[in-house]
Fold this protein.
Amino acid sequence: MIFYHFGELIILFALIIRILYYSRKDFNKLKINTEVYVYILILFLNNIICSIIDNVPLLFESYNAIVPSLLVVLLILDRFKHFFIKFCISILISFLFFYLNNSIFNLILYIAAILLMLRKAFYFTKNSSINLHRSSLYIIFSIDLLFSILNMQLGNIDLEWNQSKLINYLGTLSAVVFFINLILTHVFIRRFFVA
Amino acid sequence: MYLSGDSLLLSLFTMILPTLIVLIGTIVYSYTVIKRYSNVLSRLYRSSFRGVDTERKRIASELHNHLAVHSISVSQEFASLKRKLIGEHLDELNRLESSFDLFHYKTHQVIEYLYPKELLESDWVASFNLLANQMSIGQINVQFENFARSWPKTDWLHHTYWAVQEIISNAIRHSKVNSVQISVVDEDGNFIISIHYKATEEAKKWLGSKAESNLGMGTLIIKDRLKTVDAHMVIDVKNDVVTHHIYLKNENSVTR
């Protein structure tokens, strides 16, 4: 798992560098489709914090509270013009849900985030060919969120999973899926900066 | 602490529900993307056929002009030489002139068939009459009968014409038939072109193999041409006769 974390960290770091490189001439490009960059940033920060802080349950709960609420708010406020206000609202609401820390709310938010991601992907398929290529990333993120829900729900079921072989396989499968999705994100991220 | 059965089932449901949502969403997304790309391919086909037809028209026009100019000058040369020659040389020149006239006639015919004048004039009846005459070579006999009182959009004539020509060529080449009949009729908003020929053994074998593989340049051309004009074809074999029915929508249909 150390190799997985290290590999994920390198890929995420490279992704952040690429985003900054492509947006160096015009940072206003980051104001469109913000949820993509915010999600990548959260994954990167999560990876770093996991390496520093040893409190796995706290990190697990905070990730599952913040990520879906942030994505839902950013996707709902997609057309909202004032970027700063949109960003502040999304941060406030995500910390509110982090404070509430209710597993049912988190689940509903995750499902809402998946539905909104799929909705945006379908919306992009009706648009120009550039948006059609961008839509693939939203499907990839939906699959990521799905595996996050599975891990969250299995974590919420109060059973001893250590002895379970199937759960270990699911954990390995989740890691593989997350890794492949990160690589695919590298492939599709360029489309967000092409005119 | 172990959960009760109900709460475990609920937890399982909360895992299955998002999985189903993502699965259905991914399938619908894939279908949407594939449909979009197939629409793009259809547009590409239509524009490539348009390009082929335009190029054909251009080549026919250039050949026609080229032939006209050169045949006039050659005829003038023949006329001036005839005034100077006598006896055997004159006979030889006359033979040369008749060979040249035959060459001129055949070349003119090829140019006409390359892009018939009737297609330019968008005349359905005259086009199919010409097609029947063009395909009637040697022992092959192609006849055309018109029972229609109205005809579809003139834009569709080119594609239908070439599709019917391909069907008749296939019938002659693969089914080894000598007689083909084309008939057109319009009824209930449909323009129906029927191509009939004898169901020889070769025909049955060929149609059977086409039904399985659907390959072959000619078959693909027919399919694409008919798709461009939103037509569909039904092939049936009844009473020892193969009939290809092509159904085209006819907005100009006259109701009885």
